[in-house]
């Protein structure tokens, strides 16, 4: 086994202390190489008693600078879609499958371009998401896109096949209810943005019905 196979956040995750202890410890995580180039750990945000947990991929450029999830363009779109579907963003716990921003630069000092996390990085970061789920115990998980889906449900997850449906799966020993949908940044990239946005809102309405 090579050293790279051993990437994991596991030794950094505290066993008690709730979300504040998790957040403090995650700030010093060295579980995989992504901490090296990123500005800071972007941990989840929201109440420990939130009824719904939204899981994205990883922080983007803005999130990396501000230290909070979904504060950039994708987050603005997500907030709008949540409000339209009838889910109060303030009542949700929002987090990502991977807690550090991964990026490339076309040239030195140029704009940072988002790069998808590898399966190894997703697996390494998994203990943080598992710890968040154990504390928050949400009634429902909204899975935002393929990376979150693979992190929670395994590499065979295909968002196009299951979006908008209600799944029940055993995750880290707990029976979880999940509604998968597309990632909000895929809406920003879509040729027909309006149709893609309506699709996102429609999936979130399914989630809202479960919570009502
Ligand atoms: N995209 C994500 O998946 N998460 C964020 O926090 C921001 C953009
Ligand atoms: Fe730790 Fe996750 Fe950051 Fe890797 S991406 S260093 S596992 S917090």
From TrEMBL:
Pfam family, one: UDG
Superkingdom of origin organism: Bacteria
Keywords: 4Fe-4S, DNA damage, DNA repair, Hydrolase, Iron, Iron-sulfur, Metal-binding
Transmembrane spans: none
CDD domains: UDG-F4_TTUDGA_SPO1dp_like
The keyword Iron appears for this protein: yes
SUPFAM superfamilies: Uracil-DNA glycosylase-like (SSF52141)
Uracil-DNA glycosylase-like domain segment(s): 43-205
Keyword DNA repair: yes
Family: Belongs to the uracil-DNA glycosylase (UDG) superfamily. Type 4 (UDGa) family.
PANTHER family: TYPE-4 URACIL-DNA GLYCOSYLASE (PTHR33693:SF9), TYPE-5 URACIL-DNA GLYCOSYLASE (PTHR33693)
Protein known as: Type-4 uracil-DNA glycosylase
């Amino acid at each position: 086994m090579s050293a790279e196979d051993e990437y994991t956040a596991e030794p950094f995750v505290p066993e008690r202390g709730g979300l504040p202890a998790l957040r403090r410890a995650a700030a010093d995580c060295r579980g995989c190489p992504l901490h090296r180039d990123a500005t800071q750990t972007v941990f989840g945000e929201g109440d420990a008693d939130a009824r719904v947990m939204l899981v994205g991929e990883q922080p983007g450029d803005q999130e990396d600078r501000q230290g909070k999830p979904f504060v950039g363009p994708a987050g603005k779109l997500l907030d709008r879609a949540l409000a339209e579907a009838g889910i109060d963003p303030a009542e949700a716990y929002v987090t990502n499958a991977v807690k550090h921003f991964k990026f490339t630069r076309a040239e030195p000092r140029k704009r940072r371009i988002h790069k998808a996390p590898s399966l190894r990085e997703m697996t390494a970061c998994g203990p943080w998401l598992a710890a968040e789920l154990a504390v928050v115990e949400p009634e429902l998980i909204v899975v935002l896109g393929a990376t979150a889906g693979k992190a929670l449900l395994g590499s065979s997850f295909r968002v196009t096949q299951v979006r908008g449906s209600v799944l029940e799966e055993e995750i880290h020993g707990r029976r979880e209810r999940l509604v998968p949908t597309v990632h909000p940044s895929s809406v920003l990239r879509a040729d027909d943005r309006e149709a893609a946005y309506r699709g996102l809102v429609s999936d979130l309405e399914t989630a809202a019905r479960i919570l009502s």
